[in-house]
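With this grant's support, we have settled on a layout for protein records. One resulting record is reproduced below.
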Amino acid sequence: MNAAASAAGASFTYDASGNITNYTQEMNRLYDQLSAAEAAFNSMGSKDAQESYQEKTLDPLKKKIDDLKDYLSQYEETRELIEDLDNEIDDKFYEWQDNNYEQLTYSLELDIEINDL
């Protein structure tokens, strides 16, 4: 798992294809934590207590969520890049195969022509 996901407290699980299978559950868990923290913040009686709570609890939790969103964006971009590169490799392989077939066919045609002479 990526450090950003781990730092955000996310425990993603992946299927055999590398897709995240529990994204919704992990994001809901973090948003539930944020909602509970905001409710606690709103119930505080003093401005000093709210400022301290904001700094120690709300801001770090919001940063975790933002970091996790950044990680997920990078994860998707990386998966797309890998898929594109994999397709490019396949394309090059098929192109090489076609060229090889053309050369073999040409070589056989030449052999037949030479034998016919």
